[in-house]
């Protein structure tokens, strides 16, 4: 009887002990762009559980590994000053997705500049097929435009038709919503991964 018992438990035991470590979380390389003051650094710092206070504008670029439950995002954040934006495209190579942060409470002039930069990115040969997460930041400010206003002003429907993009409102006050936006982006990245495997 004991012998039978051993025989029946053996496969279960083997299954338990030979399972090995859990599978590694996939890593994705993303580029994060947007004008100076749009809040890129602060948002990424908060996602990494770092303090978003006394954040200094990124002058060149910085890389952060942003951990999520089902993936790790290696985010290359590019400075958004006038004299740096012309070099953005040098850093696009190898990107698997794009995060574009805009200040939804900014002046009309800045909003127009942001729109032009987003249009350039959406049409850039190295980015045009990638998933985009567009974050309308500073929603907690009184002057913030709604997501619908941003969508219309940025002409996203005609421009991004057929592309994978998500437009979401965000602010530092609502980290749950921000994490949810990134979860949606991770889903798009996974989908693109599966398609590449099938091809």
TrEMBL record:
Superkingdom to which the source organism belongs: Eukaryota
Keyword entries, A-Z: GTP-binding, Magnesium, Metal-binding, Nucleotide-binding
Binding site for GTP: 34-41, 80, 137-140
InterPro entries, A to Z: ARL15, P-loop_NTPase, Small_GTPase_ARF/SAR
Binding-site list for Mg(2+): 41, 58
Pfam families reported for this sequence: Arf
GO MF annotation list: GTP binding; GTPase activity; metal ion binding
Magnesium as UniProt keyword: yes
Similarity field: Belongs to the small GTPase superfamily. Arf family.
Stored PANTHER family: ADP-RIBOSYLATION FACTOR-LIKE PROTEIN 15
This protein's name: ADP-ribosylation factor-like protein 15
Native source organism of the sequence: Neovison vison (American mink)
Name of the gene: ARL15
């Amino acid at each position: 009887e004991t012998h039978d018992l051993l025989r029946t438990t053996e496969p279960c035991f083997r299954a338990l002990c030979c399972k090995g470590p859990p599978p590694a979380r996939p890593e994705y390389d993303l580029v994060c762009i947007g004008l100076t003051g749009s809040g890129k650094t602060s948002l990424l710092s908060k996602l990494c559980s770092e303090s978003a206070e006394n954040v200094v504008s990124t002058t060149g670029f910085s890389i952060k590994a942003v951990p999520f439950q089902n993936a790790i995002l290696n985010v290359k954040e590019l400075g958004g000053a006038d004299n740096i934006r012309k070099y953005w495209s040098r850093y696009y190579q190898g990107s698997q997705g794009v995060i574009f942060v805009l200040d939804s409470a900014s002046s009309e002039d800045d909003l127009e500049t942001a729109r032009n930069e987003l249009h350039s990115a959406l049409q850039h040969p190295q980015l045009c097929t990638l998933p985009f997460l567009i974050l309308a930041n500073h929603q907690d400010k009184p002057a913030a435009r709604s997501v619908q206003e941003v969508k219309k002003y940025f002409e996203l429907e005609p421009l991004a038709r057929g592309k994978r993009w998500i437009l979401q409102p965000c602010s530092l006050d609502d980290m749950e919503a921000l994490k949810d936006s990134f979860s949606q982006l991770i889903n798009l990245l996974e989908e693109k991964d599966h398609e590449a495997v099938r091809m």
